[in-house]
Design goal:
Low-confidence stretches of chain B: none
Shape of chain A: globular
Helix content of chain B: over 70%
Number of helices of chain A: 8
Strand content of chain A: 15-25%
Radius of gyration of chain A: 19 Å
Structural class of chain B: mainly alpha
Oligomer: heterodimer
Order of helices and strands of chain B: HHHHHHHHHHH
Distance between the termini of chain B: 26 Å
Number of strands of chain A: 10
Number of helices of chain B: 11
Mean pLDDT of chain A: 89
Radius of gyration of chain B: 18 Å
Largest sheet of chain B: none
Order of helices and strands of chain A: EEEHEEEHHHEHEHEEHH
Number of strands of chain B: 0
Strand content of chain B: under 5%
Chain lengths: 262, 245
């Protein structure tokens, strides 16, 4: 997996997501502090940082389910949360949100008919569902009730929901948690296939070895962006061998800067 | 709003129920068993059975649909599927109408069973058309669905959701005229009962019980129950938020 070269395709022009002075307040806490960043189209951006650093809040803001977002956040040319964006974004939350009393296929059939309603699209829906189930390798379990699936199978079924309707932007909140190494590799291959087809992916993780498989990284800590660059550039900038080392290096740097009185 | 999405939602809710045979059995059988019990409780006074039995035929769908909907929508909220759906191109009205349609269909089966059983096997003596009884029962079911949907927004857990049943339903049950005619109550209570929708559900049932034709009062009662259901459904829609903290 280390020999994977993420730099093999030139990114399509333009940014998929641009944020300027993006701030989110939840209750008494400011979860995101004045973030500025731009994510390129057709690439996989990894969102990394310790738990509680604001990764999920940032993703919810992009998808448009987060309240109290200030600053500007533009997604695929629209303000985040615009109705026009809803069919164009696939979103995977951390906890798999599927109906446990429906089978895998029944779950996907329903979500597909929300995305592509009407009798005329029946065949197209059926094909899309079959493809999504195959993409996440659940074909043998498509008639199983979601409630009887293992944790990893459930999260894959939920990932399949996000793949329906070939979204231009996929926002995936820790999609590989609890999966075995083989499945993780297969899913990352799928993510790269999707990116090659032109989709933009924003994937959060706190497993640092997954960072190496992203085109770009957004390192977060305490509601702020620590660094935004390619994995290679991060490593060489910090003279580190791995992204994990680079991340620790940047955290130490930030801590020492905070401790030094101005 | 989109008819296909609404129908897809209703079909999905019914498919979920189909996987839960015990709930369906309980929903359909309990009203029949209760009305049979009531028949024998008032063994000596069939007239009392007529009036209470007819009222109960309207109250059952309200209570069961209230419970089913409040738990179902609470599960939709806590499991994250609601957030997921609202991030998709689904109108809130599609979701709510889908639920109302699915549970309305279930209520029709439930009421038809209980009404048919009471009329033909328990000799419930109703002067008016059984179809009018069914109509009121359906409107009551919609009202129950609407109320359940609305209170589920204020319940953080199933425990709380179930507690809303005595809080929302019991006062209406006491004041609706089931136990004693509303105009004999203490005037303040009578005034309160005048603004509670269940009172009109029971009044409507009593109209069918006593009159062969559709009376003006029946139309008024049915309209009030239907309007209340729509109003509360709209309030319920307002509690569905696409953006949450």
């Amino acid at each position: 997996m280390m020999n994977y070269s993420p730099e093999h395709a030139p990114p399509p022009k333009g940014a998929a997501i641009t944020a300027h002075d993006l701030t989110v307040v939840r209750g008494p806490r400011t979860v995101l502090r004045s973030l500025d960043f731009a994510l390129p189209k057709g690439r996989i951006t990894g969102l990394l940082g310790p738990s509680g650093c604001g990764k999920t809040t940032l993703m919810r803001a992009v998808v448009g389910t987060q309240a109290k977002v200030t600053g500007t956040l533009e997604v695929l040319g629209h303000p985040a949360g615009a109705a026009a964006l809803r069919p164009r974004i696939g979103y995977v939350t951390q906890a798999p949100s599927i109906y446990s009393d429906l089978t895998v296929r029944q779950n996907l059939d329903y979500f597909a008919s929300v995305l592509q309603p009407g009798r005329d699209h029946r065949e197209a829906r059926h094909d899309a569902v079959t493809r999504a189930i195959a993409d996440v390798d659940l074909t043998s379990h498509e008639s199983a009730l979601a409630g009887t699936l293992s944790g990893g199978q459930r999260s894959r079924a939920f990932l399949a929901v996000a793949l329906l309707g070939t979204p231009e932007l996929l926002v995936l909140d820790e999609p590989t948690v609890g999966l075995d190494p083989v499945l993780r590799r297969d899913l990352w291959n799928l993510f790269h296939t999707l990116a090659d087809r032109g989709a933009t992916l924003l994937i959060s993780s706190h497993v640092m070895d997954e960072a190496e498989r992203c085109h770009r990284l957004l390192l977060m800590r305490g509601g702020e962006i620590l660094a935004e660059d390619t994995p290679d550039a991060l490593r060489s900038r910090t003279h580190s061998a791995t992204v994990e080392e680079a991340f620790l290096h940047l955290v130490d740097d930030a801590n020492s800067r905070q401790e030094t009185p101005r | 709003m989109n008819a296909s999405r609404t129908l897809a939602t209703a079909a999905r809710v019914l498919t979920q129920l189909r996987h839960d045979r015990r709930t369906i059995a309980l929903l359909l059988l309990i009203p029949v068993v209760m009305i049979t019990l009531l028949h024998f409780v008032f063994d000596a006074s069939p007239q009392t059975f007529d009036s209470i039995g007819a009222s109960l035929l309207g109250i059952f769908p309200l209570i069961t649909m209230f419970l089913v909907t409040s738990i179902a929508t609470l599960r939709e909220r806590t499991s994250g599927t609601l957030e997921r759906l609202l991030a998709m191109p689904l109108a809130k009205a599609d979701l709510i109408a889908g639920y109302a349609l699915a549970f309305g269909a279930l209520a029709v089966v439930q009421s038809a069973l209980a009404t048919g059983f009471s009329l033909w096997l328990l000799d419930l003596d109703v002067v008016g058309s059984p179809w009018l009884l069914l109509l009121i029962a359906l409107l009551d079911a919609l009202l129950g669905t609407a109320l359940g949907l609305f209170v589920s927004a204020f319940a953080a857990s199933e425990f709380q959701a179930v507690q809303f049943m005595p809080a929302v339903i019991f006062p209406q049950l006491l004041l609706c005229g089931l136990f004693t005619p509303r105009d004999t109550m203490q005037p303040v209570l009578e005034a309160i009962s005048n603004v509670l929708p269940m009172s009109y559900a029971v009044d409507g049932m009593n109209e069918v019980l006593r009159h062969t034709d559709i009376t003006v009062t029946f139309i008024r009662d049915a309209t009030i129950v239907a309007t209340c259901a729509l109003l509360v459904l709209t309030l319920g829609a307002a509690t569905l938020r696409r953006r949450t903290a």
